[in-house]
C-alpha cells in the first residue's frame, strides 16, 4: 500500500476525530500508531501483521520517551509555575493597576490599561488562555461596572489576552522550537517587537473607537497626583524585574531560557513570601495547577512526536514538497496559502493542536523555499494568535464570555473583536513583508 496515501488518510482521520471533540493527544497518538502498524504490515507487499508489531511499538515508545526526556521541555512546567505563582503573589496584576493609574485621564484609559496589563501578564506567564481568563476576571467586570460599552469591555481583554502567544515567554514558541530544532531563546527574542507592535495596535484601536464614539467609555472624574503615579509604577517592579531577567538574561547570554525560567520561579516565590502576598497553601495550589497543565501539554507533545515520526515514515511530506515545487508557486502565494490554512484551522481547533498537526508538513516546505525558521515561527504564532479570537470558535472569546456570564452575549464580543482583528491582520502582513521586524533582536545577539 502506498505510504503517501496512508499519510493523507491519517491526516483526514485526525481532523475528523478532532471535529467530534476527541482530545488532540488521543487523536494524534491513536492515528499515528494504527497508521505506523499498517505501513509496516504492508512493507513486503502482502499484509503481514506479525512483522509490524515490534517496529510499531519501538517507534511509538522510543519517540515519546525521547521527547519527555528533552531538556528544553523542562522549561514548560517552569514557566507555567511562574505564571500561577506570580498571579497568586499579585505580581502580574500590579502592571494593570499601574497602567490604569497612568492612563486614567485618557479617554478609554481603563481599556488601554487592560491591554497593557495583558501584555505585562503575557511577559511572565506565556499562556494566552490563562492571560484572558485571569485578566478577564479583573478587567471586564470593572469596565462593565464603570459603564463601558459591553463590546469594548470584553473585546479589549479577549484581544489583549492573545499577546501571551507572542510576547516571551511563550509555551507555543517552546513547542515550535522543540519540533523544529530551532533556538528557543532566539524565538523568544524574535517575538518581542511583533508583540509590542500588536499591543500598540490594540491601544490604537481603543483610542480611535473612543474618539469616534465618546459614549463607549465614561470620562474620568477626579485627579491623580504624580505621587500616586510614582507609587503605582514602583509597585510594579517585581513584574518588570522578572521580564528583565528573562529577556535581558537571554539576550546578554548570561543563561539559557530554561535557566531564566528556573531563576524567575525562585524569584517570584521569594518576592511573594517577602511581600506577604503568597503563603504555603497558595504555593501548593500553584504547583498543583502547574502539574495538571503540564501533564496535558506533555501528553499532546508526546503524541505529536509519534505523529511526526509516522509522517516521516509515510513520505507524505516530500510528496507535498515535490508537488508544490512542480507547481512553481511564488513565495508570496505560498505564504498566502499557509496563512489561509492556519486561519481556517484556527476557527475550529486550539493553537497547540494546529501546530503539532501542521508542522510536519509545513517545515519541509518552508525549508525548500529557504525561509528563516525563526521568522516563520513568529508568523505561525501570529496566525495562531489571530485564531484565538476568530469566529466561530475563538477560544479567548469563549473564556471572556464565561467570565462575564449572561451580561454580555458572545455575538456582542465577536462584533467588538472585528476591530482588533483588522489590526492583527495588518501586523501579520508587516511581519511577513518585513522579516527584519522579527529578526532584528535575535540577529543582534
From TrEMBL:
It is found in: Cell inner membrane. Keywords: Cell inner membrane, Cell membrane, Membrane, Transmembrane, Transmembrane helix, Transport. Residues 11-436 form the TRAP C4-dicarboxylate transport system permease DctM subunit domain. One of its GO terms (molecular function) is transmembrane transporter activity. InterPro entries: DctM, TRAP_DctM. It holds the Pfam family DctM. Belongs to the TRAP transporter large permease family. NCBIfam families: dctM (TIGR00786). This is TRAP transporter large permease protein. It comes from Tritonibacter litoralis. The lineage of its organism: Bacteria, Pseudomonadati, Pseudomonadota, Alphaproteobacteria, Rhodobacterales.
Amino acid at each position: 500500500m502506498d505510504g503517501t496515501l496512508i499519510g493523507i488518510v491519517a491526516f483526514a482521520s485526525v481532523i475528523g476525530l478532532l471535529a467530534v471533540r476527541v482530545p488532540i493527544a488521543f487523536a494524534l497518538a491513536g492515528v499515528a500508531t494504527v497508521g505506523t502498524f499498517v505501513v509496516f504490515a504492508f512493507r513486503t507487499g502482502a499484509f503481514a501483521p506479525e512483522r509490524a508489531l515490534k517496529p510499531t511499538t519501538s517507534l511509538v515508545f522510543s519517540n515519546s520517551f525521547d521527547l519527555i526526556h528533552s531538556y528544553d521541555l523542562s522549561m514548560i512546567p517552569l514557566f507555567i509555575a511562574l505564571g500561577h505563582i506570580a498571579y497568586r503573589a499579585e505580581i502580574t496584576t500590579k502592571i494593570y493597576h499601574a497602567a490604569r493609574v497612568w492612563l486614567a485621564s485618557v479617554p478609554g484609559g481603563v481599556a488601554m490599561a487592560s491591554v497593557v496589563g495583558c501584555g505585562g501578564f503575557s511577559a511572565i506567564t506565556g499562556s494566552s488562555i490563562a492571560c484572558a481568563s485571569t485578566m478577564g476576571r479583573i478587567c471586564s467586570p470593572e469596565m462593565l461596572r464603570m459603564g463601558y460599552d459591553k463590546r469594548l469591555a470584553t473585546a479589549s481583554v479577549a484581544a489583549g489576552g492573545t499577546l501571551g502567544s507572542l510576547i516571551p515567554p511563550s509555551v507555543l514558541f517552546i513547542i515550535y522550537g522543540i519540533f523544529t530544532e530551532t533556538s528557543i531563546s532566539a524565538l523568544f527574542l524574535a517575538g518581542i517587537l511583533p508583540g509590542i507592535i500588536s499591543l500598540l495596535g490594540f491601544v490604537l484601536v481603543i483610542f480611535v473607537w473612543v474618539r469616534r464614539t465618546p459614549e463607549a467609555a465614561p470620562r474620568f472624574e477626579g485627579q491623580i497626583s504624580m505621587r500616586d503615579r510614582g507609587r503605582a509604577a514602583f509597585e510594579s517592579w517585581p513584574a518588570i524585574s522578572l521580564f528583565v531577567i528573562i529577556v535581558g538574561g537571554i539576550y546578554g547570554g548570561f543563561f539559557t531560557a530554561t535557566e531564566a525560567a528556573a531563576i524567575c520561579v525562585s524569584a517570584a516565590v521569594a518576592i511573594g513570601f517577602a511581600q506577604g502576598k503568597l503563603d504555603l497553601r497558595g504555593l501548593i495550589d500553584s504547583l498543583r495547577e502547574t502539574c495538571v497543565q503540564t501533564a496535558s501539554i506533555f501528553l499532546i507533545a508526546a503524541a505529536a512526536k509519534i505523529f511526526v515520526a509516522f509522517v516521516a515514515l509515510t513520505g507524505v511530506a516530500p510528496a507535498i514538497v515535490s508537488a508544490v515545487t512542480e507547481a512553481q508557486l511564488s513565495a508570496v502565494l505560498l505564504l498566502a496559502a499557509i496563512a489561509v490554512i492556519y486561519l481556517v484551522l484556527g476557527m475550529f481547533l486550539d493553537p497547540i493542536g494546529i501546530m503539532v498537526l501542521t508542522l510536519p508538513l509545513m517545515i519541509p516546505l518552508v525549508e525548500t523555499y529557504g525561509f528563516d525558521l525563526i521568522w516563520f515561527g513568529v508568523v505561525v504564532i501570529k496566525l495562531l494568535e489571530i485564531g484565538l479570537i476568530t469566529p466561530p470558535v475563538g477560544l479567548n472569546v469563549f473564556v471572556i464570555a464565561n467570565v462575564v456570564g449572561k451580561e454580555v452575549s458572545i455575538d456582542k464580543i465577536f462584533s467588538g473583536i472585528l476591530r482588533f482583528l483588522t489590526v492583527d491582520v495588518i501586523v501579520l502582513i508587516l511581519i511577513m513583508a518585513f522579516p527584519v521586524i522579527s529578526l532584528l533582536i535575535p540577529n543582534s545577539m
